[in-house]
Design goal:
Keywords: ATP-binding, Coiled coil, Magnesium, Membrane, Metal-binding, Nucleotide-binding, Translocase, Transmembrane, Transmembrane helix. With 1208 residues, the chain is α+β, with helices and mostly antiparallel strands. The protein has an eleven-stranded mixed beta sheet, with helices on both faces. The protein is globular, with a radius of gyration of 36 Å. The relative contact order is 0.08.
Length: 1208
């Protein structure tokens, strides 16, 4: 991440580069124009003949004399048009690019930020670059009376540092040494602790939308059509552009209002300031404050009425013109954030006691998390991402339980010996975990279009073609003295504008927004819309094992306390030491009237009448034995250590002693044993091979407990046994993995579990077609492949070469991966299927390596230990469970929704939405009832004509991944996202092909007409425009196939089959148009028709009739036969509106070519010669074009896929 600054000052208005050079240009042009020769009179003729010639030549009549414009005058007028266009381009570039804006409108003060320079300049250009993303803005430099300077950029405040000569963000220090914890300095210069998104006005957002390059280009084209007297078509295009822009603006504003509801309403909180406790609003908290924590039920709101729903609706109504005449539902913004004041208002470091929090709203973790007070005496730096994550309570989470104590910081007076949980405020506002999530959603949502690299390449190629056609028409037109030069220039420019169809701005956003809406109907929420097309390019599917492929709930199989006998015993029959470890080494809590926590820790207490656990006093008890175990110190499970431990006090029949209880991965604890039992490795590997999850249980006696360090305690352990449990696959995991495998995807497993357990799961899922499994190991300074289940090993002399050639399921552990990394051979991991005992950092590394090798990667996990990998993947999916929901019912509902058409889905959502609003209106005034209704309908999404964009609600997105699935914990969501990504990608690529064909044909047909001073009528142009817009909309609404194809889709337009199909179709349509013009139309035109010029009013000729009918047919053929269809999308349904809208104009063209209906001819302004032969020729040509276009597209698709896919 890099930040760069440049000081700026506004130029005086007449010194701007978009003003003074053009003022000089206009003045020079004026003087040049004034020095040109006057118009010369034409030859003397009768007055009517003069008038006809004047009309024909584009001349003028004064005092019965006809004057024509000299070429110099025409060139001057053309120069004026070019100067105005270039002036507009320069002016608009300051809106398109911040870099251009800084050059055009500002004086630069350079990058040196000395105090003198900062004082002399009022603005600063800030450029933020992170990975492949960048954001640039020009901000105002603000100051106060104490000569402090600061700027605001991306919701953050940056102060000027005179010593460093830089603007430094006032960033909370979250990496301080824990020994200095009680000496943390506090500053009051932080902004208010609020997550409120700034709201733009309607006219500002509309101005931004209309000033985008494509919109500007269309407005310019419309102005040219108006000059060519095509007013109806121009107004239709302008109306469509304005309507589309307003739709997008309204949706953006509704989305911003919804994002504003992700903020946390302020609460009353007790803070220690000026040596006393005082209650303040949570908005006034700053990093360094000490606060008293409360449970969600104890918290009181700082403001009585937190429901600002009516204010949001009123704001929308005030901003949108003619809002009184628009439907009320357009302005309704759902309030699902009624009790957000009960959430933790900032990121807090727990100083003492123990807190149980619900992090599901933030991380997607459904199991309540236990947070422990930080050890203040450690000589190490705070690490809130990894080591000390269990000591931090993050903003947006809810506190369920508290257990305080009297261990206050030394500088806080606690004479009354009060017992509270205290916390140190670490981060506030947008610096918090939740604040970063909101910023991610907001800044990514503002750019929800597909990356347009392919599109820009197509536009450049088409521009070259259009310029060539325009130049040809211009050169030929200038050679004819009789041509109206003004019309000639306008029409030549119009040929160039055909490069970009008017519908393009709408097309580029519809594909992505439609996919977002469909994903939301399936309860899959996306915070980074640009990743949807990336899902279509995925080749590798990476899955976490536990909780993703297998169930979260575990089945207790038994305990093995003797490695030699390997006899599996029940909970009551195993040794007392094993029972003590399972009863005392855990972090279970009591919430919602039941014991909750890690499923593997719950196993021992389930259906166990002998042992019970009290969470308040933190002790386990066996009354039959008179045994009580008190937890004194808990060392939480660490992914890098692969173990957890507790220090307990054991009381039994009056005797008391301390023990350290440890459980963890067998290979991790093996290094800590005082003595390793015989058959230790063979025993745990035996059960791992069978697919069981194996945990090692160990302990040791402690003479005295005086808050020793973890490393000091966890040594010289005594083995007590293995906990054997089964983690069965989810019911549908096998069927989905089979579907992925039968397609072109490569599924892999990345897990922190044991290698042998992961192999057993891999074999169940048949991850590799070859049934043999090999484990990479390192023995005697050589890499070897060991065949699983046998003792066969093979030494790899040339690791890189032999690994690539090896057939079978390759597996690797974390220790061997470290060796590969140290020897710079990490790129070989792309040949492996199973990665076991991987730390969160190693999971990230695996994803990065696959991406470096050019593989698109999808990562699916539970959203906790997989966060890094989920964010590094092209597509990261966090599976989030909603407590209280039945998975089976959810899956049935998802299946039902998936089978509905898009229109039916919209109708269903609208119906549900009306029911929700009705219930909310009935409950108006009853906040508790409104809260219950809101919770019941949390997942309902508003979709409709104005809701085609992304929509987020409180709790839908999580910080774990760009995609969050809340339908169920099934990996079905992977299939849904892949299908939608492929649909978006394929639709976009085919849209570029259609755009290219349309642009080439428009340019050629316009050139052919303009060569003869002809044009199409406004009726004809408007009809083609309406049909084109309808085609594009229906086309982009196509649905994906219900199953994944075995064939990869095209990832880009740079593919042989794409260019072959495009080239052949261009040749067909240009040849047919050329043939129709030169061999059918022109030879059969009457002499009167040949003298008709459409420079003023339109008069039908057989030439423009031929061009119109053939171009309308070609347009229908292009959309009909270039529909992606199978194998990646559903083929066109012959009963669908889309097929009918394409097929009817196709038939209409062929029927019209017969000259069948005089009424139809009059309506479409068509004319035909008296002879039937030209009509027959035109009809035959139309049939030939239709059949040949079908053969070309079906032929290239068949050659590409080696399979025939249906008739259409």
């Amino acid at each position: 991440m890099t930040l760069s600054f440049e000081l700026l000052n506004l130029r005086p208005k007449f010194m701007r580069f978009d003003i003074w050079p053009f003022v000089i240009g206009y003045i020079a042009l004026y003087f040049w124009w004034s020095t040109l020769d006057e118009e010369a009179p034409m030859d003397t003729n009768p007055l009517m003949e003069k008038i006809n010639k004047a009309t024909f030549y584009g001349a003028e009549i004064y005092n019965d004399e006809v004057y024509y414009e000299s070429m110099e005058n025409i060139y001057a007028r053309l120069t004026f048009i070019g100067l105005v266009f270039f002036h507009s381009l320069v002016y608009m570039s300051s809106y398109w690019s911040v870099q251009m804006k800084s050059k055009i409108r500002y004086f630069s003060g350079g990058n040196k930020l000395s105090l003198n320079n900062v004082q002399n300049y009022k603005y600063c250009k800030v450029l933020f670059i992170k990975q492949q993303k960048s954001y640039c803005d020009i901000v105002t430099i603000q100051s106060d009376q104490q000569n402090k300077y600061w700027i605001y950029f991306m919701e953050n405040k940056y102060f000027y540092d005179e010593a460093k000569e830089l603007f430094i963000r006032l960033k909370p220090n979250v990496k301080f040494n824990l020994e200095n914890l009680e000496r943390q300095e506090k500053t009051e210069e932080y902004e208010k602790n609020s997550l409120l998104i700034p709201m733009k006005k309607f006219n500002e957002v509309l101005k931004e939308q209309l000033m985008e390059p494509f919109s500007f280009f269309q407005i310019f084209s419309v102005s040219l059509w108006l000059l060519d007297e095509s007013r109806i078509y121009a107004l239709f295009t302008l109306s469509m552009l304005f309507f589309t822009s307003c739709t997008v603006v309204i949706q953006r504003m509704k989305t911003m209002l919804t994002l504003r509801q992700m903020k946390l309403n302020p609460q009353l909180i007790t803070v220690y300031r000026k040596n006393q406790w005082t209650k303040i609003s949570s908005e006034l908290l700053v990093p360094g404050d000490i606060v008293i924590l409360q449970t969600a039920e104890q918290i009181k709101p700082a403001v009585k009425d937190n429901n600002n729903n009516n204010d949001d609706e009123q704001f929308l109504r005030e901003q949108i013109p003619f809002s009184k005449h628009l439907p009320p539902k357009l302005f309704q913004v759902e309030t699902m954030n009624v009790d957000s004041y009960k959430s933790v208002p900032c990121d807090i470091l727990l100083l003492n006691g123990q807190v149980v929090v619900n992090e599901s709203m933030l991380t997607g973790e459904s199991v309540p998390q236990v947070k422990e007070g930080i050890n203040k005496h450690q000589n190490e730096h705070l690490d809130i991402k990894n080591k000390h994550k269990s000591n931090v309570i993050f903003c947006g989470t809810e506190i369920i339980q508290l257990q305080g104590n009297t261990q206050y910081p030394s500088y806080i007076n606690n004479d009354q010996n009060q017992s509270h949980c205290l916390g140190l405020v670490l981060r506030t506002g947008f610096d918090t975990a939740k604040g970063k999530l909101i910023k991610t959603v907001f800044y990514n949502n503002e750019n929800a279009n597909v990356k347009q690299t392919d599109g820009l390449f197509i536009v450049v190629v088409l521009l070259i073609f259009a310029l060539s056609a325009s130049a040809y028409v211009l050169m030929n037109g200038l050679q004819e003295e009789s041509r109206n030069k003004n019309k000639l220039f306008i029409r030549c420019i119009l040929i160039v504008t055909t490069v970009v169809p008017p519908e393009l701005p709408m097309i580029l956003s519809i594909a992505v927004n439609q996919s977002l809406a469909l994903l939301q109907l399936r309860k899959i929420f996306c915070t980074e819309p640009f990743r949807i097309p990336l899902a279509g390019k995925v080749e590798v599917l990476a899955f976490d094992k536990t909780g993703t492929l297998t169930n979260d709930t575990l089945l207790f199989s038994g305990i093995v306390d003797n490695c030699n006998k390997r006899c599996v015993q029940s909970k009551s029959d195993c040794s007392l030491n094993c029972q003590q470890i399972l009863a005392g080494c855990h972090q279970l809590i009591y919430a919602d009237n039941k014991l909750q926590g890690d499923p593997i820790e719950l196993l021992f207490f389930q259906q166990n009448n002998q042992w019970s656990y009290q969470t308040q006093q933190k002790y386990a008890q066996n009354r039959d034995l008179g045994l009580t175990i008190y937890q004194k110190q808990v060392f939480s499970f660490k992914s890098d250590l692969k173990r957890m431990s507790t220090v307990v006090q054991v009381d039994q029949k009056g005797q008391r002693h301390y023990r350290l209880l440890v459980k963890g991965a067998p290979e991790a604890l093996q290094q800590l044993f005082l003595q390793i039992p015989d058959e230790y490795e063979y025993c745990y590997q035996h059960y791992s091979n069978l697919g069981y999850r194996v945990l090692c249980l160990a302990d040791r006696e402690i003479q005295e407990f005086e808050n020793q360090e973890r490393e000091e305690l966890e040594q010289n352990l005594v083995f007590q046994g293995f906990l054997i449990c089964e983690s069965p696959l989810k019911t549908d995991t096998q069927q989905w993995i089979k579907k992925f495998k039968t397609s072109y995807f490569q599924p892999i497993i990345i897990t922190g579990d044991n290698l042998l357990t992961a192999i057993a799961v891999g074999k169940q899922l048949l991850l590799h077609d070859n049934k043999k499994t090999y484990i990479l190991d390192y023995q005697n300074n050589n890499y070897v492949l060991e065949e699983h289940g046998t003792k066969n090993t093979q030494v790899l002399n040339n690791l890189e070469k032999e690994i690539k050639q090896f057939e079978g399921m390759l597996c690797i552990s974390s220790s061997i991966m470290e060796k590969l990394e140290n020897s710079n051979q990490l790129k070989l991991i792309i040949h492996f299927c199973i990665f076991a005992r991987m730390s969160p950092k190693q999971k990230e590394t695996i994803i990065i390596q696959f991406k470096k090798q050019g593989k698109g990667v999808l990562m699916c996990g539970d959203g906790t230990n997989d966060v890094g990998a989920l964010k590094k993947a092209d597509v990261g999916i966090a599976l989030v469970t909603n407590q209280g929901e039945e998975q089976k019912e959810d899956e049935e509902e998802e299946e039902r929704i998936a089978n509905l058409s898009f229109t039916e889905q919209l109708k269903q959502v609208k119906k549900q939405q009306e029911e929700l609003r009705k219930k909310m209106n009935e409950a108006k005034g009853d906040k508790e009832k409104m809260k219950n209704i809101a919770n019941q309908h949390m997942q309902q999404q508003t979709a409709g004509l104005f809701d085609m964009g992304p929509s987020y609600k409180f709790g839908d997105a999580c910080i774990a991944a760009p995609f969050t699935s809340k339908m169920s914990t099934s990996i079905r969501c992977v299939h849904t996202i892949l299908m939608q990504g492929i649909c978006t990608l394929v639709t976009t690529i085919q849209t570029y092909k259609i755009m290219a064909l349309q642009s080439v044909l428009n340019a050629y047909s316009l050139s052919a007409l303009h060569m003869q001073s002809l044009k199409m009528s406004e009726t004809q142009m408007t009809l083609m425009g309406i049909l084109g817009a309808a085609y594009y909309f229906c086309y982009s609404s196509a649905k994906p196939q219900k199953t994944l194809s075995k064939i990869k889709p095209s990832f880009s337009i740079f593919e042989f089959s794409f260019f072959i199909s495009l080239t052949l179709q261009i040749i067909l349509h240009i040849w047919s148009m050329h043939y129709a013009i030169h061999h059918i139309a022109m030879p059969n035109m009457t002499q009167i028709e040949k003298e008709i010029k459409n420079d003023t009013e339109f008069k039908p000729t057989f030439l423009n009739t031929t061009v119109f009918l053939l171009q309308l047919l070609q347009q229908s053929c292009i959309f009909l036969f270039n529909h992606p269809g199978e194998p990646h999308m559903q083929k066109i349904d012959v009963n669908s509106k889309f097929f009918k809208s394409l097929f009817i104009p196709l038939i209409l063209c062929i029927v019209s070519a017969f000259n069948y209906s005089e009424m139809l001819n009059a309506y479409l302004e068509l004319t035909f010669p008296s002879s039937e032969e030209p009509s027959v020729q035109l009809t035959i040509l139309c049939l030939f074009v239709t059949i040949t276009n079908w053969l070309i597209e079906k032929g290239t698709k068949t050659l590409k896929y080696k399979k025939w896919y249906g008739f259409i």
